[in-house]
Amino acid sequence: MEPEEANGKGNMGTKKKNLNFLRSRLYMLERRKTDTVVESSVSGDHAGTLRRSQSDRTEYNQKLQEKMSPQAGCAAETLTQEEEEEQQTRRMMARRSKIIEELVQTERDYLKDLELCIKEVVQPLRNKQIDRLDVDSLFSNIESVHQISAKLLSLLEEATADVEPAMQVVGEVFLQIKGPLEDIYKIYCYHHDKAHSVLEAYEKEEELKQQLSLCVQSLQ
């Protein structure tokens, strides 16, 4: 073999070694970018190697920090409880506000019904002065009921108008008007059964029944 051929083969062998070396280095560099090797030891003679991706390593570090910082976890849990209590308070206040709104609207509708009854039925029957028809026996003290209901509604509206829901106090309104309410409704309820019996008797007389029906139709 001539010296030039020997030198050529030697150079080729050196180049192959260099290429193999570069390939192995590139492989190791690429591997380090994507994997992290964590050596872990357990009791006894067993040992293992845990490989994690870059994202897994980040998550692992976060969990490790949380375990090493229990106070931070407690603070987050306390904040969550405070948020839940605040949400519950808001729900309760919203429900309370709606109940008060419905209460006031119910009284408003009831007062309107009383006004219609007095205007379209009670007063026309009184003005007609029909024989054998006792308006007071039928409707008792309905005008007094109307007056006390108007007073109650006025107090409720005053207690809830332009007032924050948390500051609305309607219980005091009923305590304030409790006495007059009881006195008036005692009379109305006492005569209720008698009024029902009188109405049944009037419906058996054609003339009285017709007069009552006309008043009811005017309400419709």
Terminal residue distance: 128 Å
For the report, how would you describe the main beta sheet?
2 strands, antiparallel
At the fourth level of CATH, the homologous superfamily of the domain at 75-218 is Dbl homology (DH) domain
Unreliable runs = 1-9, 33-53
* Helical content band: over 70%
Strand residue content:
5-15%
Globular, elongated, flat, extended or rod-shaped: what is the shape?
A: elongated
Report on this model:
There is one protein chain. This protein has 220 residues and is mainly α. It has helices at residues 3-34, 54-68, 70-128, 135-139, 142-160, 171-190, 192-202, 206-219, and strands at residues 35-41, 47-53. It is elongated, with a radius of gyration of 46 Å. Strand 1 and strand 2 (47-53) form a beta hairpin. The chain has a domain at 75-218: Dbl homology (DH) domain (Dbl Homology Domain, Chain A), CATH 1.20.900.10. The protein starts with a helix and ends with a helix. It contains 8 helices and 2 strands; from the N terminus they run H-E-E-H-H-H-H-H-H-H. Strands 1-2 form a two-stranded antiparallel sheet.
Key terms:
220 residues, Dbl Homology Domain, Chain A, guanyl-nucleotide exchange factor activity, mainly alpha, DBL_dom_sf, 80% helix, DH domain-containing protein, 8 helices, 6% strand, elongated, Dynamin-Rho_GEF, single chain, disordered N terminus, two-stranded antiparallel sheet
